[in-house]
């Protein structure tokens, strides 16, 4: 991270209360950026509050489906850089509530693109797509040339958002780059239905961890601070207009099954529990993982943390967090 690049730069982060957003805010604030977050819901136990950074940023309460709010934010705060992370990110929720997911993820993206098109101050926009945008493919790992063909609601929403961002670059010259990442994990993820925080919480509570799938799904897992560094490296590189409109995969390139990941967490936490496999997951792709060769070559980005190191840091974060919660210091 080049801290000088971010000093006094006006940055909008949508979804700043989420896992990636909260860590990105920390890095940006520490580098001297003037950070504005668009946040729909206030979550007092979220990492943005727990870390103490909520009080260090400007917060706009609003929703991505309201384009006029977005236009106002970009204009009044003279935004230079946008990190568009705001989305409904839970696959199971997308399966139950596809319309709200499409509203947030698809309409929210075109609203932001349209607002940015009307804002002359915006110089760079980093759009969060996902490895899910590729859908199910016969050839793995995914490269940036792999076609986008999501089939299930969440996957489709990411394919659409990705293509909308590309369209605004191709049609209007909007300064856009797109990230496609594996599954983020790290301290601050409060969706305990996910395998990493859910397993850690179960063990802390002296319970057997639960795997909702059959345990064989193979995925990329990327530690959250590596993800933040990836986003920052891409944004910093965007002074080179040759990369505008392009997508970049970010991955630690070490895919692992859900069951093996749970066992790694058990090992880190020195637990003798055995995972309980429910085999209830639906609309899940059997194997998804990415090649990060382009990001390494073009951006010079490489992950700093292997899976074991990242999990150890994550476990330490949650132990501190649960101790803090149990002292009733967060209401």
Describe the structure.
- The strands form 4 sheets. Strands 3-2-1-4-5-6-11 form a 7-stranded parallel β-sheet, sandwiched between helices. A two-stranded parallel ribbon has the order 7-10. A two-stranded parallel ribbon has the order 8-13.
- It is 42% helix and 15% strand.
- Helix 2 packs across helix 9 and helix 8 crosses helix 12.
- The two termini are 34 Å apart.
- It has 331 residues and is of the alpha/beta class.
Keywords:
Rossmann fold; 331 residues; two-stranded parallel ribbon; seven-stranded parallel sheet
Task: Characterize this entry briefly.
Helix content is 42%, strand content 15%. With 331 residues, the chain is an alpha/beta fold.
Write the layout of secondary structure elements.
Elements lengths: L2 H4 L3 E5 L4 H12 L3 E6 L7 H4 L7 E4 L5 H10 L4 E4 L6 H6 L1 H20 L6 E5 L24 H20 L3 E6 L1 E3 L9 H10 L5 E2 L6 E2 L1 E3 H14 L9 E4 L5 E2 H11 L7 E2 L15 H7 L7 H20 L5
Parallel strand pairs: 1-2, 1-4, 2-3, 4-5, 5-6, 6-11, 7-10, 8-13
Antiparallel strand pairs: 9-12
Helix pairs in contact: 2-9, 4-6, 6-7, 8-10, 8-12
């Amino acid at each position: 991270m080049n801290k000088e690049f971010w000093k006094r730069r006006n940055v909008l982060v949508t979804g700043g209360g989420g896992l990636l957003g909260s860590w990105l805010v920390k890095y940006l604030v520490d580098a001297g950026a003037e950070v504005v977050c668009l946040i729909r819901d206030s979550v007092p136990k979220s990492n943005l509050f727990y870390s103490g950074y909520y009080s260090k940023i400007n917060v706009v309460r609003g929703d991505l489906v309201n384009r006029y709010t977005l236009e106002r934010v970009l204009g009044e705060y003279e935004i230079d850089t946008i990190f568009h992370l705001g989305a409904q990110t839970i696959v199971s929720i997308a399966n139950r509530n596809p319309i709200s997911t499409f509203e947030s993820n698809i309409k929210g993206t075109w609203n932001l693109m349209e607002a940015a098109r009307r804002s002359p101050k915006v110089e760079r926009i980093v759009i969060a797509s996902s490895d899910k945008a590729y859908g199910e493919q016969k050839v793995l790992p995914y490269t940036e040339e792999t076609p986008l063909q999501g089939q299930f609601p969440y996957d489709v929403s990411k394919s659409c958002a990705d293509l909308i961002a590309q369209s605004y670059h191709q049609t209007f010259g909007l300064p856009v780059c797109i990230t496609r990442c594996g599954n983020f994990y790290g301290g601050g993820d409060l969706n305990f239905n996910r395998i990493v925080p859910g397993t850690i919480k179960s063990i802390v509570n002296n319970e057997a961890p639960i795997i909702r799938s059959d345990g064989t799904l193979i995925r990329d897992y990327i530690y959250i601070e590596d993800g933040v560094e990836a986003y920052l490296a891409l944004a910093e590189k965007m002074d080179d207009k040759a990369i505008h409109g392009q997508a970049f995969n970010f991955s630690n390139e070490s895919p692992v099954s859900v069951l093996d990941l749970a066992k790694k967490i058990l090992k880190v936490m020195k637990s003798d529990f055995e995972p309980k496999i429910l085999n209830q997951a639906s609309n899940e792709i059997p194997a998804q993982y990415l090649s990060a060769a382009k990001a390494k070559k073009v951006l010079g980005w490489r992950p700093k943390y292997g899976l074991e190191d990242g999990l150890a840091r994550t476990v330490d974060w949650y132990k501190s967090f649960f101790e803090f919660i149990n002292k009733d210091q967060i209401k």
